[in-house]
Amino acid sequence: MLRSQFEEDLEKLHNQFYAMGQEVLSQINRTVRAFVTHDRDMAKEVIEEDAEVNEYEVKLEKKSFEMIALQQPVSQDLRTVLTVLKAVSDLERMGDHAVSIAKATIRMKGEQRIPVVEDEIKKMGREVKNFVEAALDLYLNGSVDQAYEVATMDENINHYFDNIRDLATEEIKKTSRSYRHRS
User: Whole-angstrom Cα distance, residue 63 to residue 56?
Assistant: First the structure.
């Protein structure tokens, strides 16, 4: 009886975690689209809907702690619950980053945009979307080989970040030199 209750609770935990992941994925997609298209209304929606992700985090943490305290899982079962607990925190942080980008989108009204950087951000956004989808799939159905593929995707995202930073720095330098020569 207790084992079947634990398995039922674990299934609910998995489903809620997956739903949270889908919500964060939606936030990421919309915030990148809002940034690239300069859509301040969509950016505001992302900010307003962040409360849903935060609610998921609270629910999942509570459920995880309840399962640990009341059912005292051991070995693999405990590792599974702890993995969800850790991953929930990571997902919530991704949602917070999406909100930060949405806020930057709103602040950038009237600022000079850098198309080459925005194009790279759009590409990186697609890569992040694929990464989050693959990580969620890995969590549900994963294999060791798939885990290595997801780790490689993370490295690609890091390269995008470095490239975007370098491009933005170079473009700012160009703009600054151009401005000084006009003065």
Answer: 10
